[in-house]
Amino acid sequence: MADAYHGSVLCRKLTLIGVGLLGGSLGMAAKERGLAGVVFGHVRRRERIRECLCAGAADHVTMDPMEAVAGADLIVLCTPVGQMRPLVERFLPGIAPGAIVTDVGSVKDGLVQDLEEMVRRRGARFVGSHPMAGSEKTGVANARPGLFENTVCVVTPTRKTSASALRRVKALWQRVGARTITMPPAIHDDLVARSSHLPHILAGQLVNFVLGAGRGKRQAMVCANGFRDTTRVASGSPEMWRDILLANRRRLGRVIAEYIAGLKKLRAALLESDRMEIERFLTAAKKRRDEWVTGTFAGWGRTATGSRVRACL
Fold this sequence. Notes:
The protein has twelve helices and nine strands. It is α/β, with parallel strands linked by helices. It has a six-stranded parallel β-sheet. Strands 7-8-9 form a three-stranded mixed β-sheet, with helices on one face. The longest helix is centred in the middle third of the chain and has 27 residues, at 185-211.
């Protein structure tokens, strides 16, 4: 299968396995920018077919995974990570030799190795990727073609990764507006355990702690913008986040322990009325976040156009 296509077309047939927020947004962006000759979507429920077509997320939508991948030269797994291996096993016989498979999963170590070997046996190629974009809202109804603009997409090649497949996957995300960076799967999982997975746990625990049983109506009435903003991600899909947390559970166990150690230090400062330690804590947090928001944080990257990247690894 050729490595390049004429004009702006990146592939003849782009298949999206899962057409929710990420898959739907990718399909919309691919169609809007003319990246594929045709965009196919695979969904699990019949009522989703019309919804995806009406949203403009794909040209054709099917519940048959074999039909979805037949003749596709670029396949993107856009399901919760726990569904990816079983789905690939189902449609593997239908993958065309030379096809490229990638994903949007938030956890890479283990998944990449498994899928890389499965796809390789079929004569196709797998490259892991993780666009750092999304929302607490789910479903194709919330998809939009600009979702990936000015974001970071982490691509996780291995020593077995095909150079041409890596170029094609990077081109896909770059062409929908993302800046791509590469790193090993294990490094990716270490970083997102702190910056993505831990915040979801913290938001969930904060909601359960503040609004849990027995707190009463007055507690909810005094929850204002700070509480709303801090807990936004707790409204994400429980199914998706269950799979993510379990897939990265060992790293998260270590990260939670480190976080608790920091809280214990702050608690001690509060109990001892240590004004200097409390101020140091708050000052460091403010400085780091302000630098991150303004794009002056150490090691901060920028897009090809110089705009600030809207993501944190």
